[in-house]
Design goal:
It comes from freshwater metagenome. It catalyses: N(1)-(5-phospho-beta-D-ribosyl)glycinamide + (6R)-10-formyltetrahydrofolate = N(2)-formyl-N(1)-(5-phospho-beta-D-ribosyl)glycinamide + (6S)-5,6,7,8-tetrahydrofolate + H(+). Belongs to the GART family. One of its GO terms (biological process) is 'de novo' IMP biosynthetic process. The protein is α/β, with parallel strands linked by helices. Helix 1 (about 15-20) links the parallel strand 1 and strand 2. A seven-stranded mixed beta sheet has the order 3-2-1-4-5-6-7. It has helices at about 15-20, 40-45, 60-75, 90-95, 115-120, 155-180, and strands at about 5-10, 25-35, 50-55, 80, 100-105, 125-135, 145-150. The chain has a single domain, classed as Rossmann fold. The N and C termini lie close together (about 10 Å). The chain binds glycinamide ribonucleotide. Glycinamide ribonucleotide (GAR) binds near residues 11, 13, 86 and 102. Glycinamide ribonucleotide binds near residues 9 and 86.
Length: about 190
C-alpha cells in the first residue's frame, strides 16, 4: 500500500516537483499546503492534480497553529515533508506528525532562513544539504542524511543555491525511500 505524504512549501516548489516526479517512490501525495497564496508550488500541484490548501498566517499565530494542525489531522498523512516551507512549526505539530525538512546547509552549521548567504559570508569552501527530522527547535532535529556541495570562487547566493538545490532534489527523494519502510502507517 502506498504511503500518504503531505508536502508543506512556501515558494517555487522545485523540491516538491522532485517528489511529484519520483516514479521510484511508492507514495501518494495527499496534498500540498502553502502559507503563501501566490506560491508557484500551487501551480505545480494543480498541474499534477494534487489537492492544495493555503493557510496564511493572519493576526494570530495561535489560530494558524490550530488551523494547520486541523488540516493535517484531516489529511491523515504517514509523513509530512517540509520542502522549502519558510515557517517554524509549533511543538504540538512536530510532536504529533512525523515531519522531515530539507535544509540548504550542512547542519548544525548555518541553521535558519538564510543558510546559503550565511555559508558564503562565513567563507567556507564546502557547504551542502541536510535532511533531518523536525523537532521544536530551528533546524535542530536529528540528522537523517547529508551531502556536501563545493563553494566555487565566483559563487553568489543564487549560483550556490542552485548548485545545492540540484543535490537537495536527489537527496530528498533518496531519503524518503530510505525511511518509508520504517514509518508507522495510518489507516
Ligand atoms: C530549498 O533550498 C530549501 O532547502 C530551502 O528553500 C529552498 C526551496 O526551494 N529551505 C529553507 O531554507 C528552509 N530553512 P524550492 O521552493 O524550489 O523547493
Amino acid at each position: 500500500m502506498m504511503h500518504r505524504i503531505l508536502i508543506l512549501a512556501s515558494g517555487n516548489g522545485s523540491l516538491a516537483q522532485a517528489l511529484i516526479d519520483a516514479q521510484e517512490l511508492d507514495i501518494e501525495i495527499v496534498a500540498i499546503i502553502s502559507d503563501q497564496d501566490d506560491a508557484h508550488v500551487l501551480v505545480r500541484a494543480q498541474n499534477a492534480g494534487i489537492h492544495t490548501q493555503v493557510i496564511k498566517v493572519g493576526s494570530s499565530r495561535e489560530n494558524w497553529n490550530t488551523e494547520i494542525i486541523n488540516a493535517v489531522v484531516a489529511l491523515n498523512p504517514d509523513l509530512v515533508v517540509s520542502a522549502g516551507f519558510m515557517r517554524i512549526l509549533p511543538p504540538e505539530f512536530v510532536n504529533r506528525f512525523p515531519t522531515i525538512n530539507s535544509h540548504p546547509a550542512l547542519l548544525p552549521d548555518f541553521p535558519g532562513a538564510h543558510a546559503v548567504r550565511d555559508a558564503l559570508t562565513a567563507g567556507v569552501s564546502v557547504t551542502g544539504t541536510t535532511v533531518h527530522w523536525v523537532d521544536d527547535g530551528v533546524d535542530t532535529g536529528p540528522i537523517i542524511t547529508q551531502m556536501q556541495v563545493p563553494v566555487l570562487p565566483n559563487d553568489d547566493e543564487v549560483t550556490l543555491h542552485e548548485r545545492i538545490k540540484k543535490v537537495e532534489r536527489g537527496l530528498i527523494v533518496a531519503t524518503i525511500a530510505l525511511i518509508l519502510p520504517t514509518l508507522e502507517r495510518n489507516v
